Amino acid sequence: MFVKNRGSLTITSFNDVITILNRISRIKIFLIFFATIWILSSAISGFLYIINSEGYAEAMSNTTDLVDSYPFLGAVLLFVIVGPFLETIIFQIFLLKSIKTLLEKFGAVSWTPSFVLSSLIFTAYHGLGSESIYHGVIIVSPILPGAFVFCLLAILEYEREQGRPITYVFLLHAILNFVQLARYFVID
């Protein structure tokens, strides 16, 4: 339950956060979440680059090699449509709801455990195939903000009347990937 004390708001649970965020329009949430992911991921990438530019470039070479192996339209199909759709279904729909349903059988009523577990599994998945744990950490660190935001958006949509978690999570993920892909093909 959240409590108002002399004009300030005290949030006492994750469910309070969900309640407050669901009072904000979808378009504003979408824009706030897009900006949050973009800023945090860029800041994390920049920090990792500053502390070890050679290690960062080496870790990211697998990702750039993968993107380079596709023409632009093929990369768009894979990284903007197919990948985000499948990841939304697997991580922010199936896994998130499965963990929530399983934990409800043990009396848990909060989204928090499923939010955290699903986000961390989504992030770890993106580090699979890394040459080392160090490279894996470099690759997945900038993905972590997106993982948390995608799960939070899915939860918000589950809690909204006539919510559409698949639609909104997929759209946010696809738009972010498209912007990254376009930046990569145009700038890099």
Estimated share of beta-strand residues: under 5%
Strand count: 2
**Average pLDDT value?**
91
Give the spatial strand order of the biggest sheet.
Answer: 1-2
Number of alpha- plus pi-helical segments: 8
Spans of 5+ residues with little confidence (pLDDT < 50)? none
**Helicity level, as a percent range?**
over 70%
Morphology call: globular
Q: What order do the helices and strands follow?
A: EEHHHHHHHH
Distance between the termini: 48 Å
Cα radius of gyration in angstroms: 18 Å
Largest β-sheet summary: 2 strands, antiparallel
Classification by helices and strands: mainly alpha
Structure description:
With 188 residues, the protein is mainly alpha-helical. The protein is built from 8 helices and 2 strands, in the order ββαααααααα. It has a two-stranded antiparallel ribbon. Helix 2 (26-51) packs antiparallel against helix 7 (144-159) and helix 7 packs antiparallel against helix 8. The longest helix is centred in the middle third of the chain and has 33 residues, at 72-104.
Provide tags for this entry.
single chain; mainly alpha; 76% helix
In short:
This protein has 188 residues and is mostly helical. It is built from eight helices and two strands.
